[in-house]
Each structure stands twice: as structure tokens, then as C-alpha cells.
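so im writing up the methods section and need the Si:ch211-150j10.4 record in one place, dumping it here so i stop losing it
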Amino acid sequence: QIEKLFMSQRQWEGGVVGTFCSDQNDRAAIFSKQQFVLQFFLGFLTMSTTSLAPKVPTCEILRTTAPSAWTSGSLSSMPTSAFINCL
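--- predicted struct ---
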């Protein structure tokens, strides 16, 4: 369902109205929110009163999710050897 929502958003952005109603900053903000939603629903983020900290992905998880689901902070938190072996 989330994927359908994201695809619908992308279609709207590429349409006549979406092209005129959103700029690059809007699209970047939406993309950031989509990353959060995807990570939250996949269980990689936990809600806490202090902060929202992403979990460090494993190689198996990286292979089953889209690269855009991960922030650079999440990926850089992986041990270098694990990240290299995953490629």
C-alpha cells in the first residue's frame, strides 16, 4: 500500500498540475518524508521520546529494500567490511 502511495505521488508530480505546483525543494522534502515512512513501517525506526534513530541495516535487509530507503547515516553506521561484502 505504501508503494502505491509513493507511485501515486510520483505520477502526480510528473503530471501537468504537479509540475507547476511543486519545485525541487518540495520534492526533496517529500522524498525525505517518504524515506522516514518506509523505514518506520519496515521496522527500522523506533519511536522514542528522545529521538528517532535509524537501525543499522544488515546485508540481507539491504538486498531486499530499495537503496532510497536508507539514509547516508544508516549506511555509514554499518561496519565497513559488512558493507563491502554486501556489494
